[in-house]
Specification:
255 residues; single chain; 7 strands; globular; alpha/beta; seven-stranded parallel sheet; 8 helices; 45% helix; Rossmann fold
Length: 255
C-alpha cells in the first residue's frame, strides 16, 4: 500500500472552505480520509463539502461551522468532529487572520490582540483539545500552517510574522513533550500563495514584483502545492518527521 494512503483516517481542518485549507481537505479526501470542513460560515462549509463529496464519489467530507476566535465554538468543533467521525487522527490548524497591513507603530491594539488570539491562542486551544485522545491512542499528527513570515522580517506584516513564528514553536513544544507517545507535530511555511487570504499581497504589483524578484521559480504558489506536504505529514510517509517546519516557497527564502 502507498505510504500516502489515508484510508480510515479522520482529519479536522480549520479554515477549510477555501484556499489552502480547502485544497488540503480535498487532497486528504482523495487519499482516503474522512475530513471535517470548518470555517465561520456554514453555507461555505456545506458548499465545499458537497464539492469534495461529488469529486470523491462518496460522503467523506462533513461541514461544521466554527469561529476560531471563540473558545466555546472550538470545543464544540472538536466534540462534533468526534461524534461525526469517531476520532481525530490529524488536526490541521489552517485558519488565521491578518486585519492590518502597515507599520507596527500604526497597528491598533485591538487588531494586534485579534492576530494573537486567532493565529496563536486558537491553535494552542485546539491542540490541547485533541492531544488527550492522541496520547491515549499513542498516535496522532498535528499540522499548523505557518508561513515564511515566521522566518523573515517585514515592514508591513509585523504582528502576523510574530504570530506565525509562535506557531512554529507550538509544534516544536508538542513534538518535544509528546513525541514518545508517537505524536508528530509539524508546521508548513508557505511562501506567497494565490489565495483570497493573500490577495492584498499578490494583487499589489509592487509587492508582487519584489516577491518574484527574490523567488528563483519566478512565480507565486498554488494551494495544491501546499496540500501535498499536508498529505505526507498526515500519512505514514511522515511518520518520522517531527517538530519541523517545512518551507514551501519556490525558493524565496534562499535568495
Amino acid at each position: 500500500m502507498s505510504l500516502f494512503n489515508l484510508n480510515n483516517k479522520s482529519i479536522l481542518i480549520t479554515g477549510s472552505s477555501r484556499g489552502i485549507g480547502k485544497s488540503i481537505a480535498t487532497q486528504c479526501a482523495l487519499h482516503g480520509a474522512n475530513v471535517i470542513i470548518s470555517s465561520r460560515k456554514l453555507n461555505a462549509c456545506e458548499a465545499t463539502a458537497d464539492e469534495i463529496n461529488t469529486l470523491v464519489g462518496s460522503e467523506v467530507a462533513f461541514p461544521i461551522a466554527a469561529s476560531i476566535s471563540d473558545e466555546n465554538q472550538l470545543k464544540d468543533l472538536v466534540t462534533l468532529t468526534r461524534e461525526k467521525l469517531g476520532k481525530i487522527d490529524t488536526l490541521v490548524c489552517n485558519a488565521a487572520t491578518n486585519p492590518f497591513m502597515g507599520s507596527m507603530l500604526d497597528m491598533p491594539n485591538d487588531k494586534f490582540d485579534k492576530v494573537m488570539n486567532n493565529n496563536i491562542k486558537s491553535n494552542q486551544i485546539l491542540c490541547n483539545l485533541v492531544l488527550p485522545e492522541m496520547i491515549e491512542r499513542e498516535d496522532g499528527s498535528i499540522i499548523i500552517i505557518s508561513s515564511i513570515a515566521a522566518i523573515k522580517g517585514s515592514p508591513i506584516l509585523g504582528a502576523y510574522n510574530i504570530s506565525k513564528a509562535a506557531d512554529v514553536m507550538i509544534v516544536k513544544n508538542i513534538a518535544t513533550e509528546f513525541g514518545h507517545k508517537n505524536i508528530r507535530a509539524n508546521s508548513i511555511a508557505p511562501g506567497l500563495i494565490k489565495t483570497d487570504f493573500a490577495k492584498a499581497l499578490w494583487e499589489n504589483q509592487d509587492i508582487l514584483k519584489t516577491v518574484l524578484s527574490s523567488t528563483p521559480m519566478r512565480r507565486i504558489g498554488e494551494p495544491d502545492e501546499i496540500s501535498g506536504v499536508a498529505v505526507m505529514l498526515a500519512s505514514e510517509a511522515g511518520n518520522y518527521i517531527n517538530g519541523q517546519t517545512i518551507v514551501v516557497d519556490g525558493g524565496t527564502t534562499i535568495s
